[in-house]
Design goal:
2 domains, 13% helix
């Protein structure tokens, strides 16, 4: 290797190491914590309204609501970080067994709002097993685990995750995926830009997304799933008590159904074909893009639609 080329490599390596070091220092930032504890009885309500931040909700065996808020400022200056922390207001209140948390950024210290973007918030909340939730955040993911109660959450930009919930679930996000597993009760979830994954739900499901796929697995109730930009897959293991609808404007529809389930099929695609593993009683002329008739003697309607894909009905 020629000396000049060796020198060139050496200089480049030093530059790369320096950039990496500076980046790590910038990302590290400064942190502070706020902790609160409230004595409550089961059956109360936690209301959390923040203009930013992710939220994680877990449960405890004590009659307490425990809150830990982590604030991180993207600056290496402790003084600057303290100013940013002071601009974020968090108010805590308790009324009986209900706890209220309200948080917002007071103002920006400069025209472009750079300080606002430097602040990152995370709420870690522990509530009694039997408790209700009403959570709103202006930007961040929300996760709820192992809870018996009514759950209503909304975020303007983040994913939603629900696991082992006994009670109704209402979830909204403007830009993130949704996961719902091991739940019992009515589920109503919607996202404007992400996929939806639902598994082992004992109850009716209403799932809608404007830009992602939907995968519904082991739902024992009514299914109403719709997407404007992805495929829809559903597993029907038990006999539906009412009509089920699966629709998409830009993908395939795949249904896996127990061999003894009885439904009245209404399947249609605008640019594909319909296939089924089940014997089906039909009337009139058969078309590859339309299939209507009774499966196992009929039952509630199974309504399947796609404008840009195929429809498959599999026996399991």
């Amino acid at each position: 290797m020629r000396p000049i080329f060796r020198k060139f490599l050496y200089v480049n390596m030093l530059i790369m190491l320096l950039v990496a070091f500076l980046s790590i220092g910038a990302v590290a930032g400064q942190k502070t914590y706020i902790e609160k504890e409230f004595e409550v009885n089961p059956g109360g309500l936690l209301t959390l309204d923040s203009d930013r931040g992710s939220v994680i909700v877990e449960t405890n065996t004590e009659n307490k609501v425990l809150v830990e808020v982590t604030l991180k400022a993207d600056t290496r200056s402790k003084d600057r970080a303290q100013e940013i922390f002071e601009d974020f207001d968090i108010d805590f209140e308790q009324e009986g067994d209900d706890v209220f948390i309200e948080a917002d950024y007071k103002y920006d210290r400069n025209f472009w709002g750079k300080d606002r973007n430097r602040l990152h918030i995370e709420f870690l909340v522990s509530v009694p097993y039997e408790y209700n939730l009403d959570i709103i955040t202006g930007g961040g993911s929300i996760s709820v685990d192992n809870l018996k109660g009514e759950v209503e959450v909304s975020t303007s930009g983040g994913s939603l995750r629900f696991e082992e919930i006994s009670g109704s679930v209402h979830g909204r996000t403007s830009g993130g995926s949704i996961s719902l597993r091991q739940c019992e009760g009515f589920a109503d979830v919607k996202t404007s830009g992400g996929s939806i994954n639902i598994g082992k739900v004992k109850g009716d499901v209403d799932a809608r997304t404007s830009g992602g796929s939907i995968d519904v697995n082991e739902v024992m109730g009514i299914i109403d799933a719709s997407t404007s930009g992805g495929s829809v897959t559903a597993h029907i293991h038990g006999q539906p008590s009412d009509d089920c609808r699966l629709t998409t404007s830009g993908g395939s529809v795949n249904v896996y159904m127990n061999e003894d389930v009885g439904v009245t099929l209404d399947a249609k695609t605008s640019s594909g074909y319909v296939e089924t593993d089940f014997p089906i009683t039909v009337r009139g002329k058969l078309k590859k893009s339309i299939l209507r008739g009774k499966i196992n003697g009929g039952g509630p309607e199974l309504y399947l639609r796609t404008s840009g894909g195929n429809i498959h009905l599999y026996s399991i």
